[in-house]
Write a structure and sequence with these properties.
By secondary structure, the protein is of the alpha+beta class. It has four domains: 184 residues, no CATH class; 97 residues, Pdz3 Domain, CATH 2.30.42; 70 residues, Pdz3 Domain, CATH 2.30.42; 198 residues, Pdz3 Domain (Roll). It has 15 helices and 36 strands. Helix 1 packs across helix 12 and helix 1 packs across helix 13. The chain starts with 6 loop residues before the first helix and ends with a helix.
């Protein structure tokens, strides 16, 4: 599991995050000095001091407190400012703390967590006029906004690459697939469509599309302005975002467009290698560096048209033309694969991808770099048994592996026409270090699901009537040979379209060589499900690089500044909207991220280039500014409200009220920390 990227990225993000905190606290510090408030400490980080500096004392490992006490006989905080200055000693200790995520400024007579803290001295926080204290309290937020604008300007001067707002995959049944053309044309977005505006707002990146969808109110209809190749004028579609099953965020159900060139890097080939073989591309001389140039009779520039053609193929091969790195064309017929139906077993197990209750076996598609099971498991192995559990489907297999974290396990695999027993190692995170996929290129069956959950309860599946055990194999349907799940799905779909109530299977149970002829019942709902069976491309889009666009000011400082101010304002509004959507429930709490999650995301962001990292840091700086100015106790916004009250009433809120508000703020912030920390850890464990 790659938790937080490589070491250099981790260092970059921690330093960057520390810079954001330092700038925030520097804003408070400079404003306090301007207002005449004594600042005893300025710290970057939290916890014990690692390195500290005080004028007149110099640099010290740890704190300078011991040196000051040895010289004056008392701590610096207790020594009058005039005496310190007379001795050439500074009142402020500048320190670097052990934990890099955080920081603080300690002002005389002011402590966020102790509302009763005060001092009667003229250089104390409470002795300063209210309007000056308002400036001191808000200076950290202002510093973060100024920093964000500066970072945005720097990023846009050079240019930042983002995923293009071009539609790649349109998920079947999604809002995008049924979006209404306001001019009466065919419904639905298509791969290759470029989304230009949403509700009149310009769209520049695919992230803009995702954010606009996620931030929509429940039931809100979005107006999508789309540019489609072959259309002279923009098209307008209406789509109502729906909650995604996994993230539970509102979405219109599209994925970013992917390029057509097969990547050459080893990580991408780990995902694509076996797929290229099974699709017949390798045998045709199509490999890394080759590009898809034609689907059917149409030239293509993204992978989306291939996915679209496969989805509408009815299972029939799709003609494609590829160009090799040497420029030679290669014609390859791509065989679509069936999209299995996700069903939930009645026993409460994890959802399965199945067909009429039949689930495919698990195939090892490849081994990850550094996997402890190199030489033990091989690409192409079919998992026949795992720790005595026969025929685990991919979903069940993942659960079984996770339950054996840090252990050695016995496995039986089907390899090169025979069976092989192996002893594999599961790491402490519950992973084998392999890529798995449904074994659709064979006709083997994993376990069957006898009952599945439906809206009104549970129902028996068609497979339940056969009482077939794990590791059976389907040899024929209605007398026609079946070699893989592609043929199985096509034959069952053909039977459903004929309207028959039963179909004959040639079924070979595990341990037998001759097929048994059995009758598979097809209910009306089974026939409807088979008739609407979808097909997709066997080439996983995730293995191809996304289509990118560059946001740039074209070297103009004025344009970069304009873009920087606009991006800062947009993100500030978006952060407020996120809070609003959290309250409304359209953005789930499990999408919140804390410091660990920010570092995790940041290390992956760093892989996209230094300027994208600068852009990311600008976004975090704006978020820090907005969140710090929320009207909550113990953050700057809550303290500012107390000062507003004091300015209007002529006195601060009562100590009792401030104590209660501080405790409520601590409880809220503490709860958010626990929630975000849990979310962050779960993402790390799951690799999200």
């Amino acid at each position: 599991m790659q938790l937080i990227g490589d070491g250099s990225n981790l260092v970059l993000i921690i330093l960057g995050f520390g810079l954001l905190i330092a700038i925030h606290e520097l804003g408070h510090f400079l404003a306090a000095r301007w207002a005449g408030i004594r600042a005893d400490a300025f710290a970057v980080g939290m916890g014990p001091a690692v390195l500290a500096y005080r004028r007149g004392i110099g640099w010290k490992l740890g704190s300078t407190s011991a040196a000051v006490t040895a010289r004056f006989g008392q701590p610096a905080e207790s020594i009058p400012l005039e005496r310190l200055r007379a001795e050439g000693v500074g009142e402020t200790e500048y320190s670097l703390r052990l934990l890099p995520l955080g920081g603080f400024v300690r002002m005389k007579g002011q402590e966020d967590l102790v509302p009763t803290a005060s001092s009667a001295d003229s250089d104390a926080y409470g002795a300063c006029p209210v309007w000056k204290r308002m400036i001191v309290v808000s200076a950290g937020v202002v510093a973060n906004v100024i920093l964000a604008i500066a970072l945005y300007i720097a990023a846009f001067l050079v240019g930042v690459r983002f995923e293009s707002p071009t539609v790649g995959e349109v998920r079947p049944g999604s809002p995008a697939s049924v979006a209404i053309d306001r001019e009466g044309g065919p419904a639905g977005l298509r791969p290759g469509d470029v989304i230009e505006r949403i509700d009149g707002q310009a769209v520049r990146t695919f992230a803009d599309v995702q954010i606009a969808s996620a931030m929509a109110r429940s039931g809100q209809v979005l107006d999508l302005q789309v540019r489609r190749e072959g259309q002279a004028s923009p098209m307008h579609f209406e789509a109502t975002p729906m909650h995604e099953p996994g993230s539970r965020l509102l979405s219109i159900g599209i994925a970013p467009a992917r390029g057509t060139t097969i990547p050459s890097d080893p990580e991408a080939m780990l995902v694509l290698g076996a797929t290229l073989d099974r699709a017949g591309l390798t045998a045709a001389g199509v490999g890394p560096g080759s590009s898809l140039v034609q689907v059917g009779a149409d030239p293509v520039t993204t992978l989306g048209p291939l996915q679209w053609a496969c989805a509408h193929s009815g299972g029939m091969p799709v003609g494609t033309v590829w160009r090799t790195p040497g420029g030679e064309p290669r014609s390859v017929a791509i065989q679509p694969i069936p999209v299995l139906e996700p069903i939930e077993p009645a026993g409460g197990e994890a959802p399965e991808q199945a067909l009429l209750g039949f689930a495919p076996l698990t195939r090892i598609d490849g081994l990850q770099a550094g996997s402890a099971n190199e030489g033990v498991l091989q690409a192409g192995d079919l998992v026949a048994a795992f720790e005595g559990v026969q025929g685990p489907s991919p979903s069940l297999f993942r659960d079984l592996v996770m339950a054996r974290a840090g252990q050695q396990v016995d496995m039986l695999v089907l390899r090169q026409g025979g069976t092989t027993r192996v002893r594999a190692s599961v790491d402490t995170n519950g992973r084998l270090g392999v890529l798995i996929a449904p074994a659709l290129d064979t006709a083997w069956l994993a376990r069957t699901i006898d009952r599945q959950r439906v809206q009104d309860g549970t129902v028996r599946t068609a497979a339940a009537s056969l009482e077939v055990g794990p590791l059976a194999r389907i040899a024929s349907i209605d007398g026609q040979p079946v070699r893989d799940w592609i043929g199985l799905a096509a034959a069952l779909q053909a039977a459903a379209r004929r309207g028959v109530s039963t179909t004959q299977l040639g079924l070979i149970p595990w341990g037998r060589s001759e097929p048994l002829e059995v009758q598979l019942p097809l209910s009306e709902s089974d026939r409807a499900s088979l008739s609407s069976l979808l097909w997709t491309s066997p080439l996983p889009p995730g293995g191809f690089d996304p289509v990118m666009t560059t946001l740039s000011a074209q070297g103009s400082p004025v344009e970069a500044a304009r873009m920087g101010f606009r991006e800062t304002g947009n993100l500030a509004v978006m952060t407020w909207l996120t809070i609003d959507r959290l309250v409304r429930g359209t953005v789930p709490v499990d999408q919140l991220r804390g410091p660990v999650g920010i570092v995790h995301v940041g290390t992956r962001v760093a892989d996209r280039g230094f300027m994208y990292l600068v852009f990311f840091m600008a976004m975090i700086s704006v978020n820090l500014a907005v969140l710090n100015f929320l009207p909550l106790p113990i953050v700057d916004g809550g303290l500012f409200l107390f000062l507003v009250y004091e300015a209007l009433r002529g006195r601060p809120p009562s100590v009792r009220f401030q104590n209660a508000a501080t405790m409520a703020g601590l409880l809220l912030i503490g709860s958010l920390f626990v929630v975000t920390f849990y979310n962050d850890v779960m993402r790390l464990v799951s690799g999200g």
